[in-house]
Amino acid sequence: MLTREQLRAVRKIQIRTSHLVSDLFAGQYQSVFKGRGMEFAEVRLYQPGDEVRTIDWNVTARTGVPHVKRYAEERELTVMLLVDASASTRFGSVKQLKSTLAAELGALFAFSAITNNDKVGLVMFTDRIELAVPPRKGTRHVLRVIREVLSLEPQGRGTDLAAALEHLRMASKRRSVVFVLSDFLDAGAERALRIAARRHDVIAVVLDDPRERELPDVGLVELEEAETGERYVVDTGDARLRKAFAESAAAARTARDRWLHAAGVDAIMIGTERPYTEALLRFFRMRERRQ
């Protein structure tokens, strides 16, 4: 049962993302994400001008009258949202938590999908599979997806992206568009991502917060490692400590970007401190140019 505050959050996300889809992203989504090609539609009588290669020789031989096969573009896709619910995503130092940002972005992708008559499914994971919602169509289904992302109380704290991708492999037999919304602290998932990208169109939506890049000078503070619960006190007034932290964080981001590239997936970098529309538009424009 959702609280009144959660219901207001769902409604707010619905209004905001529906507006963005109708004004900005619907056309880009349709042009970037295409169906599996052409599918058989019907057999009909041959007409002057039809290509010889479309003749259905079996039907023609059986009836004694030339028939041709007719094909139609298969537009429908399955869009899967893999949402990281680990403890590290329940952090945000500026405008919103990474988990709330994931819910809004997931809603945006989901509404874009149903606008184009595509199905949407959801897998939420920590160091285990927390929730799996099979792909379906329709606004009511998308609202359920948003509610699940906002209201889930995960049992795990850590991150096991490889297990989530293995679940996807077992559950999804057809090619899908897969948005992985995570802070990608699980560097051990590179191989699983590479395998998933062979079957699916995988997009890494990387959630980031400025306090994960550098520490402010605020004196002594107690910090907690989100996924292990380990606590320690640091002196942020120490310039050398702040520099070491920033350098370590930069090296971690570089390593993350490297293994995402090596896995063969596209990445969208989204920060909690700034609007995400420009980053998404850059992504869509990049995909359009590449196609």
Structural write-up:
The protein is an alpha/beta fold. It has two domains: about 5-35 and about 75-290, von Willebrand factor, type A domain (Rossmann fold, 3-Layer(aba) Sandwich); about 35-75, no CATH class. It has eight helices and ten strands. It has helices spanning about 5-30, 55-65, 100-115, 140-150, 160-170, 190-200, 240-260, 275-290, and strands spanning about 35-45, 65-75, 80-85, 120-125, 130-135, 175-180, 200-210, 220-225, 230-235, 265-270. It has a six-stranded mixed beta sheet, with helices on both faces. Helix 3 links the parallel strand 3 and strand 4 (about 120-125). The longest helix is centred in the first third of the chain and has 29 residues, at about 5-30. The relative contact order is 0.14. The model has no long low-confidence stretch (mean pLDDT about 90).
Describe the secondary structure blueprint for this structure.
Layout: H1 4-32, E1 37-45, H2 57-63, E2 67-74, E3 78-84, H3 98-115, E4 119-125, E5 129-136, H4 139-151, H5 161-171, E6 177-182, H6 190-199, E7 201-208, E8 220-224, E9 231-235, H7 239-262, E10 266-271, H8 277-290
Parallel strand pairs: 3-4, 3-6, 6-7, 7-10
Antiparallel strand pairs: 1-2, 4-5, 8-9
Helix pairs in contact: 1-3, 1-4, 1-8, 3-4, 5-6
Concise structural overview:
This protein has helices at residues 4-32, 57-63, 98-115, 139-151, 161-171, 190-199, 239-262, 277-290; strands at residues 37-45, 67-74, 78-84, 119-125, 129-136, 177-182, 201-208, 220-224, 231-235, 266-271. It is α/β, with parallel strands linked by helices and 291 residues long. The longest helix has 29 residues, at 4-32.
